[in-house]
Design brief:
Blueprint (H helix, E strand, L loop, with lengths): L36 E9 L2 E4 L6 H7 L6 H4 L3 E4 L4 H16 L8 E5 L7 H15 L5 E5 L6 H14 L5 E8 L8 E2 L2 E2 L3 E8 L8 E10 L12 H12 L11 E3 L5 H10 L10 H5 L7 H13 L6 E8 L2 E8 L18
Parallel strand pairs: 4-5, 4-6, 11-12
Antiparallel strand pairs: 1-9, 1-10, 2-3, 6-9, 7-8, 10-13, 12-13
Helix pairs in contact: 3-4
Length: about 350
């Protein structure tokens, strides 16, 4: 798939400062439609594009993990590294989402900020959040942090935002996940090659921009006895989530047009998603080799890139999913019935 153009993600210099923007009225003054939308999905990848063959100690690490060093078997391809901090990645992606939605940053009621590992501790977290919110220009928007859900963080964040909007607590919630590898010795694990990056979307009570989806369902399933990394990803939990989401809508797995899953090694993701009941044709495997595993960001990255590569069907259903040991989370999206010309969000991480 050819790379998308790379517009600047910086906030325009002629934008008014956050303090002068007019914030939307209180949720109690807004009529509730009952419909929640996921708008402007976007992502940014690390600016350094490297082939897996350039990774120091890759063969030794594979041997340590008991993996035959066969790139074609695992889907080893390219990874993306960054010298930027997590705040910068989050701001770039979130700004792209707001532009794709045509939404003024001042209209954002809340931000759900996700990361597998927020830097520092309580003493530094306030400054971290301040830099993200100021960079996004959202002023005094409420914020929530999500981290303990590991690589399901983003989908948990989206479900949290959906609940806040559906309840009328907020009208527009910006969800951003941002992560990077800080120790190159663990860029490769037994299930994936990791890339640095961020992804985002706006969860809103109205469709904003050409890349808007309706959120029609979501669920999670947990096995608290299997949360440790010594356990495998559970196909049983995936089937439970499928039943909770699809069964409630009178649908089956065959009614899903596309499954947007984490970019784990090909044999791992194909096996687990096939065991969950999906056909291989429903999976989007291109980014296993093109981008690697970007922590929790993969489902949104794959949603963007699948739309760019294959388009989306009007009134089609697309399932965002992610699994870690002991947890499975899914969010079901529907495209508008009469919107054949889908315009995907921009991949800010691809070279121009």
């Amino acid at each position: 798939m050819p790379p998308a153009p790379s517009p600047s993600a910086a906030v325009r210099a002629d934008d008014p400062p956050p303090a002068t923007r007019t914030r939307a009225p209180s949720p109690v003054d807004r009529p509730r439609t009952g419909t929640v939308h996921l708008c402007g999905p976007a992502y940014v990848l690390g600016e350094q594009d490297a082939d897996h063959t350039t990774l120091a100690g890759l063969t030794e690490r594979a041997r340590e993990l008991g993996m035959p060093p066969k790139a074609s078997l695992w889907g080893w391809g390219r990874v993306r590294r960054t010298e930027k901090d997590l705040e910068s990645l989050a701001v770039e992606s979130g700004t792209a989402t707001l532009r794709a939605c045509g939404a003024d940053p001042g209209s954002v009621d809340a931000v759900v900020l996700c990361s597998t590992r927020f830097p520092g501790g309580p003493v530094t977290h306030g400054t971290f959040v301040e830099r993200v919110l100021r960079g996004l220009g959202v002023g005094d928007a409420a914020f929530t942090g999500v981290t303990l859900n590991r690589c399901t963080n983003l989908l948990v964040g989206i479900r949290t935002a959906q609940a806040l909007v559906a309840a009328g607590h907020h009208r527009r919630v910006l969800v951003v996940t941002t992560d990077k590898i800080t120790d190159e010795s663990v860029r490769m694990e037994g299930y994936a090659l990791f890339s640095d990056g961020a992804a985002s979307c706006l969860v809103s009570d109205e469709p904003l921009g050409p890349g808007a989806y309706e959120i029609v369902g979501g669920s999670s399933a947990q096995d608290t006895g299997a949360l440790d990394w010594s356990h495998e990803i559970s196909a049983d939990l995936a089937r439970t989530v499928n039943e909770r989401i699809l069964g409630a809508l009178g649908m089956t797995v065959d009614d899903v047009d596309g499954v947007l899953h984490p970019n784990l090694f090909r044999p791992v993701v194909v096996l687990k998603e096939r065991q969950a009941g999906f056909a291989q044709e429903q999976l989007f495997l291109d980014n296993v080799t093109r981008t690697g595993h970007c922590f929790a960001a993969d489902p949104l990255i794959n949603l963007v890139d699948r739309a760019a590569a294959h388009g989306t069907r009007p009134d089609g259903h697309y399932l965002l999913v992610s699994s870690v040991p002991g947890v499975r989370v899914g969010v079901l999206l529907r495209t508008p019935p009469q919107d054949p010309d889908r315009i995907p969000a921009v991949d800010l991480g691809s070279p121009s």
